[in-house]
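Z., the sequence and structure:
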Amino acid sequence: MPIWSLTAQVLPLRYTWKISRNSSTTKTNLLLRVAGLGQLGVGEAAPNVRYGETPELLQQQFAALLAGGLAAVDSLSELDALLVTQPVAHALRFGLEAALVAWLAARARQPVWLWLGVPAPAAKVPTAFSLPIMVPGEVAAFLREQRAARFSLLKIKVNATEGLDLLREVARALPGHPLLVDGNETWPDADSVLHFLEQARAVPGLHIRLLEQPLPAAQAWDYRYLRPRSDVPLVADESVTDEADFAAIAAQFHGVNVKLMKAGGFRRGIELLRQTRAHGLLPMLGCMVETTVGIAAALQVSALADVLDLDGFLIVRDEPFGLVTEDAGQLRLCDQPPGTSGS
């Protein structure tokens, strides 16, 4: 019988991580471990306040699962059956599934991607690199200090009031560099987004390649109005969690940023990526602020995506596990050190 455990991991950040709805200097993520039969599987849960997830809630839910029979779970079917009777937050569900899949794959002496039945990840893959919201006057120095130009795609977090000024400074420092602008639901309506895009077109050197979730997810009508009028492809994020009506999503967006934490597991994340491509949309694989435990898990399914946004571990100061390295904007899976194998 496997032994399950959960450990809170406090993660100081390298700089203030600010998006349109909140800011933070630390994150508390949770590590899920399942051990037995000489193997160890590890998963990570990164709580998302957008969906009411907190470390305390996830810890309470894990304790309830242990009391409800988690200790006897050693297969995905058994985990699924338990979670039907005791639903938990998506992030915890992913951490549990990721740990169990890693453990089962290790027992089968297979890499996780092969055990899951997906194509092998490339030896090195490019990732976007994200800039938090900041005072526009700080942008140039931040770009230099972070050596951001080495990333082929920069993801710029913006809000509705200062976003254009921030982008203007990015374009001045790195003219022509491809940008993914992420609004995190900051604009109130479609017309305000169109006005922003019109202003952006007049900024010298500004190259917006993608625009991610500019409006609240509930405003489907605005998205349907905006999609044919936007000259920048629109990517869904908050509009897609573990469920999606892809006919509706295809009428609102040009692509989908799938995050395994929001999908609630490898299997659902894989299905979302496949459905995204099947509906002619751009499949993108993203992350939360995570350690390399979570990023390494995402890399196992990275061959299913055309754009990778897996820089969450680069925000963490003194990242503790070293399962993934970055060089010249490219990510590489490393040999797994003791205590984190199977991630």
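The first strand starts at residue 3 and ends at 18. The domain at 3-116 is CATH 3.30.390.10 (Enolase-like; domain 1).

Let me know what you think.
H.
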